[in-house]
Amino acid sequence: QVQLVESGGGLVQPGGSLRLSCAASGTTFSLYVMGWSRQAPGKERELVASTTSGGNTYYLDSVKGRFTISRDGAEHTVFLQMNSLKPEDTAVYYCWGRRYGLGTDVSDYWGQGTQVTVSS
Question: Checking DSSP bridges between strand 18-26 and strand 2-7, what pairing results, if any?
Fold first, then answer.
C-alpha cells in the first residue's frame, strides 16, 4: 500500500513563499501521477497541480507562474513550491498519487492534508 506524508504547511504573509513536501512510501514505483489539491472552507476541493513520471505538468490557472510542482523519483517525494502567495490560496492542501492497475483499474492515494494560511 501507499502512504503519503505531508509537511511544510503553515502561516505565511501575502507575497511570501512556502514549500510543501509529500513523501510517499510503499508501492511508490506505480504512482504514475502525483499532485496537489486544495480545499478552502466552503469550497469544493480543486486540483492545484500535478505531474507525471514523464515530467508532464498541470497547473490550475490561478496558480500558474506562482506555483511549481516537482517530483523526486529517487526519494519518492513530490514538492509544491508556492511563491507570491495570496490570501485566496488559503486552504488545506492535500498530496495525492495515482497508480494504474489492470485494465481500467485506478487507485488514488491521499495524504492527510496540511493547512496553508496566507494572512497578514
Answer: antiparallel
DSSP state of 75: T
Task: Give mean pLDDT, residues 16-24.
Answer: 96
Query: What distance in Å separates the CA atoms of residue 42 and residue 58, rounded to the nearest whole number?
Result: 24
| AA identity, residue 96 | W
Per-residue pLDDT at 75: 61
Residue that the C-alpha cell 504547511 belongs to? 9
pLDDT tens digits, 39-48? 999 999 999 9
Q: What is the Rg, in whole angstroms, of the alpha carbon atoms belonging to the chain?
A: 14
Q: How many CB atoms lie within 10 A of CB 19?
A: 13
CA–CA separation, 55 vs 40, rounded Å?
28
The x, y and z cell numbers of residue 112, run together, are 492527510
